[in-house]
Design a protein that fits this description.
Helix content: 25-40%
Distance between the termini: 69 Å
Structural class: alpha+beta
Radius of gyration: 33 Å
Number of domains: 4
CATH topology of the largest domain: Rossmann fold
Mean pLDDT: 86
Number of strands: 21
CATH class of the largest domain: Alpha Beta
Shape: elongated
Low-confidence stretches: 178-186
Number of helices: 13
CATH superfamily of the largest domain: von Willebrand factor, type A domain
C-alpha cells in the first residue's frame, strides 16, 4: 500500500475544525475521519493482481546508444484501473521516463515504452515492474512489484568505425595495384616474363622457355589472405582510465576496427582475451560479420585486478594453429608489466609469428611535461618525463626482439593500428 500527497493535505485541512473547536478530541476525531477515508479508499481500490504484465525481447545495443524496453500491460479484471506502472532497471541501464500513468477499462491493453541508454557493457538486467493502482478517492493505492525478466546486452560502442571507409578505400587500392608482385614469393601464379640476372632458377618454366628464344620464368602473387590473432589484455593495467575511458575499452575499439578491416581483406581473424587465465576466445573464418561477433564476445569482459599470465595467453595463440599469423597484443606499454611478464614469452611468439604491440598512451603525461610554471608543476614535469623515458626505453627493447610497437592516444590508436596493418600487407610482411 502507498499513500498519495492528498493525505497530508487532508490532515492539514483538519486545522480548520481545530481552530473552530480547540480541543484534543477534535484532533483525534479528524485523524479518525482521515483513517476511515484511507481504509475505504484502499478497500475500493482495484487489486494489483488484475494487471498482467509481459515484456518484449530487447536484444543488443551499443553502449551509449538508445534502445527501448516495451511492456505489454493488460487489465484482466472486471473494474477500471488507474495508476502508475514503473519499469525499474539497474542504474547503468540508463532508464529514462520509466514511470507511466495508465487508465484501463476491463480487457484493455497498452504498450508502455521506456528508453534505455546503457552506460556500461555487458548484460544489464531489469529489476522489476511496480504497479500502483489508486482508489476512487486518490488517497491511497495498492502496490505490487512483479518480476518481469528483461535483459539488454550492451556492446562496445565501436566509435572507430568512422575510420573504416577510408581504410577500405586504401585496401581496395592496395589490392588493385598491379605493381605489387614479388618475384619468387607466394603460391598463386601471376604471369610469365623473361629471365633476368638474379632470378631464382627454380622459377624457370622450362616448357615455356622451349617455345621461346629466351628463358622464361614464372612470377607469383604474394599471399594476401592471412591469419590475424587479436590478444586482449584484461589484467590490472587495462583498468586504468585515460581521459575518463578505461584502457580496456579503448583497446577494444582498436581491435574492432582492425578485425573489420582484416575480415574485408579476406583474412581470418581469431580473438583471445585474458589475464591470469583465458576469459574469452573466438575463432573466425573470415566472415564479414566478424566485428559483430567480436562485439558480442567482448561485451562481458571487465578488467581483473591481477597480473597477466602471458604464458597462458601465448599458449592460447598456439592453440589456434601453428600457421604464421599477425599477432596483435592489445596491452598497455607499462614498463614493469611488460619487462617482467611479457618479455620472457616473446621469443616463442616472434619465432613463428609477426607480432605487434598496440598500446593506449596517456596524453596527460605530455601535458604535465610541458607545464613548468610553478615549483609543483616542475616536479610533476620531471616525473612525467621520467615515465615517458621509461616507456620509450621499453618500446625500443621490444623492437630489438622483433616486435612492432604502435603507441598512440585513445582517439588515434585504432586508425594507427589499421594503417600499420595495411603497411605490412602492402610490403608483403604478413
Amino acid at each position: 500500500m502507498s499513500i498519495s500527497g492528498r493525505v497530508p493535505l487532508l490532515l492539514l485541512l483538519g486545522l480548520l475544525p481545530v481552530v473552530l473547536r480547540p480541543d484534543g478530541s477534535t484532533v483525534w476525531l479528524w485523524v479518525l475521519v482521515v483513517a476511515v477515508l484511507l481504509a475505504l479508499d484502499l478497500l475500493l481500490a482495484p487489486s494489483a493482481k488484475s494487471l498482467a504484465v509481459s515484456r518484449r525481447p530487447i536484444g543488443t545495443v551499443r553502449m551509449g546508444y538508445d534502445t527501448e524496453s516495451v511492456l505489454l500491460v493488460e487489465n484482466t479484471g472486471r473494474r477500471q484501473v488507474r495508476g502508475v506502472v514503473r519499469d525499474a532497471w539497474q542504474p547503468s541501464a540508463g532508464a529514462v521516463d520509466n514511470r507511466h500513468r495508465i487508465r484501463l477499462s476491463p480487457g484493455d491493453r497498452v504498450l508502455l515504452t521506456t528508453t534505455l541508454t546503457p552506460r556500461r557493457r555487458g548484460d544489464l538486467q531489469a529489476l522489476g515492474v511496480t504497479t500502483r493502482l489508486r482508489g476512487p478517492l486518490g488517497l491511497c493505492a495498492r502496490q505490487r512489484t512483479l518480476a518481469v525478466p528483461g535483459t539488454v546486452r550492451s556492446l562496445p560502442p565501436f566509435e572507430s568505425r568512422k575510420h573504416l571507409p577510408s581504410r577500405l578505400a586504401r585496401l581496395r587500392e592496395l589490392d588493385g595495384r598491379a605493381a605489387i608482385r614479388v618475384r619468387g614469393q607466394g603460391t598463386e601464379f601471376d604471369s610469365l616474363r623473361e629471365y633476368v640476372r638474379g632470378d631464382d632458377v627454380r622459377s624457370i618454366d622450362w616448357r615455356a622457355s622451349a617455345r621461346n628464344r629466351n628463358v622464361v620464368v614464372r612470377t607469383w602473387q604474394p599471399e594476401r589472405d592471412r591469419r590475424v590473432v587479436l590478444v586482449l589484455d584484461t589484467s590490472r593495467t587495462s583498468a586504468g582510465r585515460v581521459e575518463d575511458v578505461p584502457r580496456l575499452d579503448s583497446a577494444m575499439d582498436a581491435a574492432l576496427l582492425l578485425a573489420a578491416l582484416a575480415a574485408r581483406a579476406g583474412d581470418r581473424v581469431d580473438f583471445v582475451a585474458g589475464d591470469r587465465r583465458v576469459r574469452a576466445r573466438l575463432r573466425s573464418a573470415g566472415a564479414r560479420d566478424v566485428a559483430a561477433n567480436l562485439q558480442d564476445t567482448m561485451a562481458d569482459l571487465e578488467p581483473v585486478i591481477a597480473e597477466a599470465d602471458w604464458s597462458a595467453l601465448a599458449g592460447a595463440v598456439t592453440q589456434f594453429g601453428r600457421q604464421r599469423a599477425l599477432v596483435v597484443l592489445l596491452t598497455p606499454l607499462e614498463p614493469a608489466a611488460v619487462e617482467e611478464g611479457l618479455l620472457p614469452v616473446l621469443p616463442s611468439l616472434t619465432r613463428h609469428h609477426r607480432v605487434v604491440l598496440a598500446s593506449v598512451r596517456d596524453p596527460e603525461l605530455e601535458r604535465l611535461a610541458a607545464s613548468r610554471g610553478t615549483i609543483d608543476e616542475v616536479y610533476d614535469a620531471a616525473a612525467a618525463e621520467q615515465a615517458m623515458v621509461r616507456r620509450r626505453h621499453t618500446a625500443e627493447l621490444l623492437r630489438t626482439v622483433g616486435l612492432d610497437v604502435v603507441d598512440a592516444d585513445a582517439e588515434r590508436l585504432p586508425p594507427a593500428l589499421a594503417d600499420h596493418y595495411l603497411s605490412l600487407k602492402a610490403n608483403g610482411l604478413l
